[in-house]
Amino acid sequence: MIKPQFSNNQIYHIYNRGVEKRSVFMEDKDYLRFIHDLFEFNDTALVNPSNIRFSSRHPSSVTSSQFNQFLALRESNTKIKRKLLVEILVFCLMPNHYHLMVRQLVDDGIVKFMQKLGTGYTNYFNLKNERVGSLFQGRFKAVLVNNESYFTHLLHYIHLNPLEKNK
Questions:
Q1: So where are the chain's domains?
Q2: What is the CB neighbour count within 10 angstroms for residue 4?
Q3: CATH number corresponding to 11-165
Q4: Among the listed residues 96, 28, 23, the one whose alpha carbon sits nearest the alpha carbon of residue 62
C-alpha cells in the first residue's frame, strides 16, 4: 500500500493490527490505556513524562475511576495549553487491531501522532507483558477519505466492526 501524502484538514482512515495477528488488547485495562494514549499523545508538545507515571509500573492496578480522575485533572489544568495534531472523529478497538478516522490539523500531524501512539502503547504493552519487540504489523495503514460516499461507508464500517466479529 502506498502511503498517502497527508494534508491538513483532510480526513483519513488509519488502521493497524498486531504482528502475526496477535491480540494487542488482552484485558479491559489495555483498552483504557490505548484510549488514554489517544488523548495523551495528541499534542504538538513532547510527550509528558507523567505519561510514564500513569500505571506503567503496575498497569493492572489502575481502576476506571482513577483513569477518569486522571483525565479530568489533566483537562482542567489551565497551565497546560494543548495544540492538537489530529482531530479524532471515530475510533474502534478490537482485540487484535484498531481503526481511527482522523482529520490532520497541523503539518505532519498524523505521522507525529501515530509515532507517539505506536511507540507509547507498545512500550506500555511490552513492559506489562514482559516482552520485547514490535507489537504492530509494520507501519500503520492510511487511506484518504476523499468523498462523501466513502465517508458514510467508513463510519458504518468502523462502528459495526465489533458486531461483525461476534456473528
A1: 11-165
A2: 14
A3: 3.30.70.1290
A4: 28
Please give the pLDDT value at position 1: 59
Q: Which three cell numbers stand for residue 119?
A: 511507540
Burial class (CB in 10 A: 0-12, 13-18, 19+), 72: exposed
Question: Which residue matches cell numbers 509515532?
Answer: 115
> pLDDT, tens digit, for every residue of 45-79?
887 555 444 554 555 566 677 667 666 666 665 56
Q: What distance in Å separates the CA atoms of residue 117 and residue 159, rounded to the nearest whole number?
A: 21
Cβ within 8 Å of residue 9, ≥6 positions away: 103, 104, 105
The one-letter code for the residue type at 66 is Q
Q: How far apart are CA 77 and CA 3, in angstroms?
A: 37
Confidence band, pLDDT 50/70/90 cuts, at residue 167: very low
